[in-house]
Amino acid sequence: MKLSDVKFSDLELPESLLKGITASGFEYLAEVQALSLPTALSGKDVAVQAQTGSGKTAAFLVTIFEKLLRTEPPKGVRGVCPRAIVITPTRELAVQVAKDAEEIVKGGELPIRILLAYGGVDYQKQREEIRQGVDLLVGTPGRLIDYLKQRVYNLHHVEMAVIDEADRMFDMGFVSDIRFLLRRMSPYNERQSMLFSATLSDRVMELSYEYMNVPELVEVTPDKLVADKVEQALYHLGSDEKMSFMLGFLEKEEWTKALVFVNTKRAAIKVRDTLNANGHPTVLLSGDVTQVNRLKVIKRFASGDVKVLVATDVASRGLHIENISHVINYDLPQDPQDYVHRIGRTARAGKSGKAITLACEDYVFTLPEIEEYIGHSIPMGELNSEYFIDYKKPPRRPRSSKNSSAGRRGSSGGRTGGNRSGGSSSKSGRGRSSSSSKRSRGGSKSSGGGKN
Predict the structure, then answer these.
(1) What region, left, alpha or beta, does residue 63 occupy, with left being phi > 0 and alpha being psi -120 to 50 degrees?
(2) pLDDT tens per residue across span 119-142
(3) How far apart are CA 113 and CA 98, in angstroms?
(4) N or C: less crowded end of the chain, CB within 10 Å?
């Protein structure tokens, strides 16, 4: 996060709001805040291009709170209508936005009621809380539409609307839901709207021009896609060497929290179980984890109860956890943008971090695309032989009854890894000799509110 020379105390903000901002640990404006807040605080619409972790959340929260404190609620409102609404593409991002908002509200003792609406948990509880009234409603499109159709609340007099990570909304197929919500809001010229997106593509700009009131464009484009404080390292390994090397790395290196990315759920389960079996308490986050369990997993990792989180790319955007010292690409991502999103989970808020990538024969073919996308070669890490260690294999997971016969057939002749004898450890040296040719750089070549 790049900071400016402007302090929040330099802005004409209510004293209570400034107190809450200070209590949240903010003093100087980030670049995106310095560029967008003067326009947003004047009441104009803004469309902001900014990356995750740039400080954009505080930019729209400060704008919302300033207006809610400065103005009286509209009169003649029938039913429950939030004064402001923030729409996010993921549940994790909604939770994080609400958490950041609550910190400011609590620190400044602001008379603002914040509620969440997202799927997977607390359906009736969220419904009843919204029925009792809300000032700032934060949620995901599906649950927001669900409650809206049930007339739990309405958007007829909403004063402020924020669309966060608009490009992600398109990627996840939410654009029709966003249009549904925008058409049911107060007219575009009677509300203030703010849109934030990593890219201001044609489709994003079309949405802003259709449903916003001549938005002012603010572009905060980083000089580099990868933050300078992320130390990157690439290791060419055989697929049968990666686990041995990663475990050795975790034993030899100094780290606080590690986020390990894999490409499939099957790999995620295997990596988690192996890390747990070798003294590294680990939790898993993938697409089919229930929302209740997702929140528990994130809380345990964020609090430091467990220090390793294994995740598929479902967690690479919208996941905001502080003090991640290492990101480990156990599998090289298949999309160059996913590489940037993954390693962006470390070196946040001005801190440094390390991103290591293990390139094996299964996924190395995407390396040239990644390096072309980020504009430089990923530095090669030194392969220290001490990092290749023997490790315990996790106990076999029980198979379901309908597959038990197949499981028995497979167990008699199938290969289980580097050690075919079924012992408790795998000998990485055997795999290393068979895969040494893959470590060269050349090895990679083998692979109603609208204007209508």
Answers:
(1) alpha
(2) 888 899 999 999 999 999 999 999
(3) 11
(4) C
Pairing, β 391-392 against β 425-426: antiparallel
Predicted TM-score (pTM) of the model is 0.68
Whether the per-residue pLDDT at 372 is higher than 70: the answer is yes
Mean pLDDT throughout 269-297?
89
- Residue 432 and residue 424 in contact, taking contact as beta carbons nearer than 8 Å: no
Give the residue among 246, 209, 197 at the shortest CA–CA distance from 359: 246
What are 101's strand-pairing partners? none
The C-alpha atoms of residue 94 and residue 138 are separated, in whole angstroms, by 6
Q: What tokens were used for 394? A: 């996790």
SS3 236: strand
Q: Give the amino acid at 309.
A: L
Pair of tokens at residue 203: 């489709």
- Angle at which helix 242-252 crosses helix 428-435, to 10 degrees, equals 120
Domains of the chain: 3-219 (3.40.50.300), 230-399+418-440 (3.40.50.300)
**pLDDT > 70? residue 270:** yes
Q: Is residue 350 a contact partner of residue 31, using CB atoms and an 8 Å limit?
A: no
Give how far Cα 419 sits from Cα of 393, 416, 426, 431, Å: 10, 7, 5, 10
Which amino acid type is present at position 54?
A: S
Instruction: Give, to the nearest 10 degrees, the angle between helix 91-108 and helix 56-70.
Output: 50
Would you state the structure tokens that stand for residue 331, as one six-digit string?
């599998």
What CA–CA distance (Å, rounded) separates 240 from 238?
A: 5
pLDDT of the residue at 259: 96
